[in-house]
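Hi F.,

I've been meaning to write this up properly since the lab meeting, where we talked about keeping a consistent format for the predictions we share between groups. The idea is simple: the sequence comes first, exactly as it goes in, then the structure tokens exactly as they come out, then a line or two of notes. No screenshots and no reformatting. I'm using this chain as the first example so we have something concrete to point to.
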Amino acid sequence: MTLRCLALHRLLRLLCLLALAAIAAMATAAEPPIWIDHDAAGARRVHLYFFWTRTCPHCQAARPYVDALPARHAWLVVRSYDLTADQDAADRYVAIAESLGEDASSVPAFLFCGRMEVGFDRPETTGKALEDALQACHEGATPAHGDPSPGAQPAPGIDLPGFGRMTPDQWSLPVFTLVIAGLDAFNPCAFFVLLFLLSLLVHAGSRARMLFIGSVFLFFSGLIYFLFMAAWLNVFRWLGEIALVTTLAGVLAIVIALINIKDYFWFKQGFR
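Output, unedited:
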């Protein structure tokens, strides 16, 4: 009876410790972020929450720039979180993003002044825009969530032949969708599928059958695009954060490239 009581006592202690650990983790994740505070001298300070991973190339490009910001701006407090193997940091990222009405699905992420910015290109572009937004926040020009900050650089865009520099905020959503869809259509895979579809339609023999084949193609093409955007894109992002998956993909790509180079010089001659 004594042994049973002792075992039960130890089990209850273990459960209590686990419960306390879970409560502490939840409290840490639920702790509201500090956007603005003041130091001992009463000077205004801005807090920047920087979330990144070790396998993200854009994160690695952003880290030296972000780490150097406090040296240039004494009023800036950088809170850096590595999401690679820190579940508490990931929970905190999700909690802060949800409090802003955002989705914590991408890195690098910069959260400050009640707003969230994702992505990093170069110090001269996105880096300068980030620094200008932090400066505006420090000066008291705190923008509402979702509004562009004073002094910030325009949103990153792409240079298109015949269109010039194109950014999402310069075009209406239907026009932007048509242009992006048109660019996506110009790829070898799309042309191959289109030629395959046309060959089926040529031999269909009737307009009703042509309409049926074309409708089936359009339906499944749209369905696959929807599934890719709704689910598979997040799956690919998650897989991209796993070092083993990216390493195997890189090795496979190198092997396939070597095989194609071999075939160019010695087609159908094996690996002798």
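Notes:
Helices lie at 2-30, 57-72, 87-99, 123-138, 173-185, 188-202, 207-240, 243-265.
The two ends are 76 Å apart (CA to CA).

If this format works for you, I'll send the rest the same way.

G.
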